Amino acid sequence: ARTGLGATSAAPPPPPPPPLLPVPVVWSPEVEVCLFHAMLGHKPVGVNRHFHMICIRDKFSQNIGRQISSKVIWDHLSTMYDMQALHESEILPFPNSEKNFILPEEIIQEVKEGETFGCTVHFLFTRTPQLAFGSCFCYPPNWYPKDSTGKTSKSR
C-alpha cells in the first residue's frame, strides 16, 4: 500500500499467539505425597509462610518434574486445611507489642518541606559456607559512627 509521502507501508504484524494455559495439577495420592515430602521442615503458616512456600514450591516442582505456581499449592492446601485459622494460631517468634512512637519534629518538618534525608548507608556482611547474613545501617546526615579513636568517620 502507498502512503501520501510516497513510501509503502508493510502489512501489519500478525497478532501474538494466545498465552499457553498452565496444565492443571491432577492431585492424585502420589502427587499429594510429593507435596507432603516437599513440606517436610516447612510450615506455610505464620510470619514466614511465604518464604516457606517458596521452598515448598521449588521442592514440589522438582519432585513432579515441572514448574508449579505457589498459588496452585496455596489453593490445594486451602481445600484440605483452614489456612487462615492455622496462620492465626501460630505463635510469633519475636515480641510484637505495640508502642507509641512519635517522630522527631525535625524529621516531620523535613518531610513537609520535601527535603531528602541524605542518609549514609552501610552494609555489613558475614559469610559462612551455608548462609550469608546482611545488615543495613542508615545514619542521618548529622550523625556518623565513631572509629576506634573516637573520631567521627563518614568512610565506614
TrEMBL record:
Instruction: Write down the Pfam families for this protein, in alphabetical order.
Output: Eaf7
Name used for this protein in its record:
MRG domain binding protein
Q: Which PANTHER family match?
A: MRG-BINDING PROTEIN, MRG_MORF4L-BINDING PROTEIN
**Which keywords annotate this record?**
Chromatin regulator, Nucleus, Transcription, Transcription regulation
One Gene Ontology term from the biological process aspect of the record? chromatin organization
Q: Which GO terms describe its cellular component?
A: NuA4 histone acetyltransferase complex; nucleus
Question: What is the annotated localization of this protein?
Answer: Nucleus
Name the InterPro entries on file. Eaf7/MRGBP (IPR012423)
Q: Which family does it belong to?
A: Belongs to the EAF7 family.
